[in-house]
Amino acid sequence: MLQTIKYDGGKLYIIDQTKLPVVNETIEIKNAEECFDAIKRLKIRGAPAIGIAAAYGIFLGVKDVEEDDFDKFYKKFTKIKEYLSSSRPTAVNLFWALNRMDKKVLSLKDRPLHEIKEALEEEAVLIQKEDEDVCRKIGENGLKILKDNMSVLTHCNAGVLAASKYGTALAPIYMAKEKGLNIKVFADETRPLLQGARLTSFELSQAGIDVTLITDSMAAVVMKKGWVDMVITGCDRVAANGDAANKIGTYGVALLAKAHNIPFYIAAPFSTIDLNTSTGDDIVIEERDKEEIIRGFGVQTAPLNIKVFNPAFDVTPHELINGIITEKGIVRAPYDINLKKYFGL
């Protein structure tokens, strides 16, 4: 199985996903600036993976800081935290991981600075380990709604390449593979950056899973033909009412699934659920450079002076979601009530 993020001997390595599937290259991230660049330029992407990378990134940013008291150290820590936080605005795991590292620092403010740095490193490693465990549990819970010979459609990439292992939306598919079940996958190409084509089809085929790549505009046709039994996608943020932000085009897939009476599920760890965001209308949607559409992958496909609207995400209303597959179980409507129950509120 591919390993998206590897931390070994004090060094952080990631697969550069901008070069897949043509080149499978692992690069080293040496400092916070390189971590910021990797997140911003999508060398590392996927909500869980972004959070893990940010945790390591902030440690790399402060490990060589030499100060004589906590307040000076914490001031530099906060500056790096704010810097990394600005890399991408939508994925809540980024902020969740950085805030967790912040809490760790504050809990040790009376300790020597070398101990604080050691604790930060340990916390980043723990975040990655916990993500692996969480993704496996998401896979096990999602497996409960799958049956042998089912066909699942997915959008964007929420698999091994989006997390430490297994992924979220693809975790049930990997669990099914381990159990000997035959699950067929339709992968939307996912315009404009083609994460489904470049990443999902790549990792599933590498794992020996039956995957068929389709363009985004073909989803309706395969649904109408009766070739899709279920839709499972990942997401970057779930609001308190169950609205879910995911890669642009997910909302359209959910509408198509509703029209064809096909169950639509979101897969997400609890770290992606943001009870402080009331509804999907409150989620900040990242807008990316028009070059991604006008000259995607270096090939001009539109007039250079044309106006472009390029949001990276859209929000699927909770009414279209049959369930949210988490590490604690499958949360179902009413989400505003049941999400709080899972949090013990």
UniProtKB/TrEMBL annotation:
Keywords: Amino-acid biosynthesis, Isomerase, Methionine biosynthesis. Pathway: Amino-acid biosynthesis; L-methionine biosynthesis via salvage pathway; L-methionine from S-methyl-5-thio-alpha-D-ribose 1-phosphate: step 1/6. InterPro entries: IF-2B-related, IF-M1Pi, IF_2B-like_C, Initiation_fac_2B_a/b/d, M1Pi_N, NagB/RpiA_transferase-like. It catalyses: 5-(methylsulfanyl)-alpha-D-ribose 1-phosphate = 5-(methylsulfanyl)-D-ribulose 1-phosphate. It is an enzyme of class 5 (isomerase). The active site is at residue 236. Substrate binds at residues 45-47, 88, 195, 246-247. The record marks 156 as: Transition state stabilizer. SUPFAM superfamilies: NagB/RpiA/CoA transferase-like. Its EC number is 5.3.1.23. The keyword Isomerase applies. One of its GO terms (biological process) is L-methionine salvage from methylthioadenosine. One of its GO terms (molecular function) is S-methyl-5-thioribose-1-phosphate isomerase activity. It holds the Pfam family IF-2B. Belongs to the EIF-2B alpha/beta/delta subunits family. MtnA subfamily. Catalyzes the interconversion of methylthioribose-1-phosphate (MTR-1-P) into methylthioribulose-1-phosphate (MTRu-1-P). This is Methylthioribose-1-phosphate isomerase. It comes from Acidilutibacter cellobiosedens.
